[in-house]
Amino acid sequence: MGSRSGGAAARMDPEAATELVRKGGTLLLLDVPQHTVFGIDTQVFSVGPKFKGIKMVPPGPHFVYYCSPSRHGNEFAPTVGFFLTTHTSEVIVRKWHAQEERLVTLSEEEEIRYSEAVKRFEFDDQLGPYNLDSFGDWKQLSSYLSPSVIERIEPIGGEITIAYETSWMDRAPQTDMEKRLMEQLREDKFAQNVSMQSERRGCYYTTIPASVKHKDISADELTLMNLDRTSLLESVLAKSYQGQEDLLLGELQFSFITFMMGQSLEAFMQWKALISLLLSCSEAPLHTRTNMFVKFIRVIYYQFKHGFLRTHESRSIEDKGNSLFLDEAWFSRDIFLYRLSKDFLSVILEAPVVDGDLLSRARELKTLLETTFGWDLENNAANLIDEDDEFAPVVVEMDGS
Hints:
By secondary structure, this protein is of the alpha+beta class. It has 2 domains: 7-131, Substrate Binding Domain Of DNAk, Chain A, domain 1 (Sandwich), CATH 2.60.34.20; 160-373, Serine Threonine Protein Phosphatase 5, Tetratricopeptide repeat (Alpha Horseshoe), CATH 1.25.40.550. Helices cover 40% and strands 12% of the residues. It has 15 helices and 10 strands. It has helices spanning 7-10, 14-23, 108-119, 135-141, 147-153, 166-169, 176-186, 219-227, 230-240, 245-260, 265-279, 283-288, 290-307, 336-349, 356-373; strands spanning 25-30, 37-40, 43-46, 53-57, 60-67, 80-86, 91-97, 102-104, 128-129, 160-161. The protein has a 5-stranded mixed β-sheet. A hairpin with a 2-residue loop joins strand 2 and strand 3. Helix 10 (245-260) crosses helix 11 (265-279) and helix 13 (290-307) runs parallel beside helix 15 (356-373). The longest helix has 18 residues, at 290-307. It is elongated, with a radius of gyration of 22 Å. Residues 1-10, 188-198, 218-224, 310-326, 381-388 and 393-401 have low confidence and may be disordered. InterPro entries: AAR2 (IPR007946), AAR2_C (IPR033648), AAR2_C_sf (IPR038514), Aar2_N (IPR033647), AAR2_N_sf (IPR038516).
C-alpha cells in the first residue's frame, strides 16, 4: 500500500488479528489506479499495485477520500470524499470507474458475490489493515458524528468534492485568507476537466446568520447582541437543531472533516460560520449553555491538535494529498481564529465565577494555541480585525441606517 498502515496489526498475535478481521468491517476497493492518494479517517496512503482496500475497520462512522493521478502521475484530480457507517463484519464494495475517475457502487448481486469472497479471505493479502493506533484520533474528531448527522447534511449521491462547488465558490465572501485558500484548492489539479458540472450537489448545511437583525430594539442594544451572540445561538439551536446541542457539534465536526480531508471550500465556510458563532458568545458559556461549551472546547481542541500540526505525518505522501495541513496562513495572527479565540478565552479566564470543567478546558485550549500556533493570547496582544470578514463584530450606527 505504500504507507504507514499496519502498526497495531503488526504487533498482534495471529489469533487476535484474525478475530479483528472477522469482526471489523472491510472496504473492498476494486481496480483503484496505482499512485492514487487514498484516505480513511486520519490515515492517508499512496495506492500500490496490489491494493484492494482496507480490512479491520472498526464499527462506526468513517470518512473515505481519494484523488486520482493523471496518466503520468504528476497531476491529481480534486479530492472526492464520502461518509459511511460500518457495522460488525460488514463488507462494503466499491469499484473504480475509469471514465468517470471515481469509485462507484456495484449491483446487489455483484456486491453479495464479492462480500462472500472477502469472508472466505480470498482478498485478505491484498487488504491493508486499518491502523488501530490512530483510531483514537479519529474518535476524537468524530465524537458527535452520528449516522443521523451524516444523513442530514451529506449531498445527494453522497460525494463531496470541490468540483461540484464552483458556482457557489464564486459567490463566497472572500477575505485575504480565503482567497489564498481558494488558490491552494484550485492550484494545478486538473479541476477544469471536471468542475463544469451542470447540477449542484452541495451539502445541506444549516444556514448560520452572520449577525443579529432586529427592528424593535435600539442601535446600542443591537450592537451588544452582535458582540455577544448568545441570542443568535439560541435562535439557531431552536430553529435548526430542535434544541439539540449535539446536532450542532456534529455539524461542526462534519464540516471540519470534509474541509480538512475532503478539501471542500464550502465545508470551510460552514466550519468558519459555526466557529465564529460559538466563539462570539459570552453569556452562553458562563451561564446558559456551560455544558455545551465544555463539549465545544473539547471538539475544537482536537480539531486544532490533529488538523493544524506543522509536522503532520501526511506530509510523507509527497504533498499530493491533503495540501491544507501546512498552509502557514493558518498560523498567522491576522486570521479570524486568532481574534475570536483570544476574546473568547479572555471572557472565560477572567470571569469572577466560572465552572471548573469550563475553566480547565479553556486553559488547555489556550496552551494548545500558544504552543501549536505560536500565538500570544494575553490581554496586551493586538486585537486584529479583518474588515473584510463577514463574521467580525457588528457595530450599529446611531443614525438608524
